[in-house]
Fold this sequence. Notes:
The chain is α+β, with helices and mostly antiparallel strands and 205 residues long. The chain contains five helices and twelve strands. Helices cover 16% and strands 42% of the residues.
Amino acid sequence: MFTGIITDIGTVATVEMRGDMRARIDCGYDMATVDMGASIACDGVCLTVVDKGQGWFAVDISAETLSKTNIGAEGWQVGKRLNLERALRVGDELGGHIVSGHVDGVARVIAMQDEGDSLRLTFEAPAALARYIAPKGSVALNGTSLTVNEVEGNRFGVNLIPHTRQVTTWGAVAQGDAVNLEIDTLARYVARLAEAMGAPLPSGA
C-alpha cells in the first residue's frame, strides 16, 4: 500500500524486452534499505524490485500492466522521469490517501490553465472509471494523491500547487499527456455496495 505522497523522482536508465519488459530506474533511495522483492510505486504502478545496486533498481513489467497503464500507451523511454514512492510501513504517516498501486486505466490531460500560483488541469477519464470520481474526492494520478475539484461527465479537474510541481514530475506536464489513473479504493467499495443493494450511484460519482 502507498499514500500518494511522492518521495523521490527516478529516471529510466535502460529498457529491454525479455518476455516481460525490464527497466532499470536510477533513484535517490538508499538501496541498502530496500529489500529484494520490495514494492515501489513508479508513476503510480506498484512494481517489484528484482535487482538493485547503488542508486538504482530494476523491475519487470508484465503485458497486463502495459495494457492498463501509460507504460503501454506511451512507452518508457530512456531518460523519462518517474514519480516514486516506497511502500507504506506500519507507523508511517498517511499524508495522502490509501493507494494500492494497481492502476485502473489511463486518463489524458485535455486542458491546462494558470490559476493564481496553481495550475488547473482538466483530464478525460475512461467512461467506466469516471463514474467513481466525485468532487472533493481523491484520485491518484501518476502516483500522486490529488483532490478532485469538479466532475462533468468523463472530465474532471484538479489543481496543482507550486510545491507539488516542484517535488514531482508534474512540473513538466503538457496537454495531451497520458497519465496513470487509480480511483479511490473507498469510492470503489461504496459503488460496489450500492450496486449490490440495487441503489443508484450518487450524482457526480
